[in-house]
């Protein structure tokens, strides 16, 4: 292979785009410094407008990256020492983690799926799963399904952005902003619901004795 052909291969968008997508999602799933949803949305928008990436492959690569990141995080929560668990749990509220633990007993694998789809829900779920020694045979398929649904949802936002603008740059920027706005709105709604106390049941008049 000539040097020119080798250089062309390394500069091809597909050769760079898929590894960057996988690495960004994996990194953001383990160390939450990268907005993984924005990475997927941007990748899908670029695929629709530039036609140098395939949307289906974007979803599959994002799914594998998210799945691998969740498994790494779960392994840290289950087998890591107290320091490692505290590192994963930084910024999390203890009452939220305890609430998720109680939900595990009633719903099991459904909590794994919902936790990946809801903003700020993934870490408490994985912390609770690790503390409860949730079995791998149940976690693996549940987390794979969760990662796939998550990737499809954020890729769909990117496809919408790509359908509005023909410019790959503008479509990527719009997809990134759109994903971040949707995530912020869901975070606000989730925080409000957690702060709102459940209404107390009204007293049953029939339970009262005669005056």
From TrEMBL:
- Lineage start: Bacteria, Bacillati, Actinomycetota, Actinomycetes, Geodermatophilales
The family database entries (InterPro entries) matched by this protein are listed as: DedA_domain (IPR051311), VTT_dom (IPR032816)
What keyword terms does UniProt attach to this protein? Answer: Cell membrane, Membrane, Transmembrane, Transmembrane helix
Q: What is the protein's species of origin?
A: Geodermatophilus poikilotrophus
Q: Where is the VTT domain positioned along the sequence?
A: 40-158
Stated family: Belongs to the DedA family.
Write down any Gene Ontology CC term.
plasma membrane
**Protein name in the entry:** Membrane protein DedA, SNARE-associated domain
The transmembrane residues are 20-48, 55-76, 109-132, 144-164, 170-189
Q: Which PANTHER family match?
A: ALKALINE PHOSPHATASE LIKE PROTEIN, UNDECAPRENYL PHOSPHATE TRANSPORTER A
Repeat among the record's keywords? no
Its predominant location is membrane
Compartments it resides in: Cell membrane
Q: What ranges does the record give for the region Disordered, renumbered to this chain?
A: 192-211
Topology versus the membrane, per the UniProt entry? Multi-pass membrane protein
């Amino acid at each position: 292979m000539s040097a020119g052909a080798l250089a062309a291969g390394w500069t091809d968008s597909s050769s760079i785009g898929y590894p960057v997508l996988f690495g960004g999602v994996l990194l953001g799933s383990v160390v939450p410094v990268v907005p993984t949803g924005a990475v997927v949305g941007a990748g899908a928008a670029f695929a629709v407008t530039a036609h140098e990436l395939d949307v289906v492959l974007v979803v599959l690569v994002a799914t594998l990256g998210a799945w691998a990141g969740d498994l790494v995080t779960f392994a840290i929560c289950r087998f890591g020492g107290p320091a490692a668990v505290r590192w994963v749990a930084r910024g999390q509220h203890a009452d939220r983690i305890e609430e998720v633990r109680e939900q595990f007993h009633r719903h099991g694998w459904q909590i794994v799926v919902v936790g990946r789809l809801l903003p700020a829900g993934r870490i408490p779920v994985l912390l609770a799963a690790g503390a409860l020694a949730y079995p791998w045979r149940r976690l693996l398929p549940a987390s794979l399904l969760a990662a796939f649904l998550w990737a499809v949802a954020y890729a769909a936002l990117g496809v919408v952005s790509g359908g509005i603008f023909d410019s790959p740059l503008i479509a990527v920027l719009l997809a990134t902003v759109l994903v971040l706005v949707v995530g912020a709105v869901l975070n606000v709604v989730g925080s409000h619901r957690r702060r709102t106390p459940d209404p107390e049941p009204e007293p049953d008049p029939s339970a009262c004795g005669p005056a």
